[in-house]
């Protein structure tokens, strides 16, 4: 049974969720489980447990990878690590426990046993956790596609929010106009990224509203076709990754003067309806190293502020 069907059979996802994950996989690559996590249909822990059952192999626990000894790390040549995408994490005499995405790949396991002389004990690991660990222990850089909005595998990735967070909340609480909401959002987002913008939904179109570090005055698109906007509107979830050179992104590429490889587009949602979008990047040739969890929180506060303004307007109209 294919993995997607097995996930449905176990009641972990719906067929509609599988379809959306497959669509995302076609656009951005990665394994189906990775896309399900990014769409927030599955938690990484749920996926790891499922993979253990699916492959009938033990699943790696996070604590097993917390501190791997140099002796174990040096038990396999780096060339083998990169070729087979395998992570050794425990050794006992000639038995070597190693994490891999497909522990049922007998051919690979046998080849490693022959080349290394170790009795390889395969454990299953999720794609994102494996790539994070390979970067941490071997310096094998992850593609930007595998760097999460909030990296749950890196305990150092969750940076502290600014001390001014309470005053920012107070600012959002006092707004009376939507222009004020956009102003606060841009001011604070601009502290963490070189280019930020707010797009607003207007008459079924996505229109450039306000920005810092770039101009969005002439921007307008429908959000149809394949683009980072259509992805965010369809899933009501953030997009993190490159701006691909496809027809749907042409208008955005024009105002960015290029195709940056690491951007964030985050929906601002009021009552399950996307009313605006927050965009951020560090330029066309740089990684977005901002505290993205903080940007997510700013977007959530802006959403509440928008709703407050809408409710005030309705009260006045009664």
Account of the protein in words:
The protein has 318 residues and is an alpha+beta fold. It folds into 2 domains: 43-158, Type II secretion system, protein E, N-terminal domain (GMP Synthetase, Chain A, domain 3); 165-317, GAF domain (Beta-Lactamase, 2-Layer Sandwich), CATH 3.30.450. It contains 13 helices and 9 strands. It has a 6-stranded antiparallel sheet with strand order 6-5-4-9-8-7, sandwiched between helices. Strands 1-2-3 form a 3-stranded mixed sheet. Strand 2, helix 7 and strand 3 (119-124) form a beta-alpha-beta unit.
In short:
The chain is α+β, with helices and mostly antiparallel strands. The chain contains 13 helices and nine strands.
List keywords for this structure.
Beta-Lactamase, 13 helices, 18% strand, GMP Synthetase, Chain A, domain 3, 318 residues, alpha+beta
Give the topology.
Layout: H1 3-9, H2 15-28, H3 32-38, H4 44-55, H5 70-73, H6 78-84, E1 87-92, E2 95-100, H7 106-116, E3 119-124, H8 127-138, H9 165-173, H10 178-189, E4 195-202, E5 205-212, E6 220-221, H11 228-235, E7 239-241, H12 250-256, E8 263-270, E9 273-281, H13 292-317
Parallel strand pairs: 2-3
Antiparallel strand pairs: 1-2, 4-5, 4-9, 5-6, 7-8, 8-9
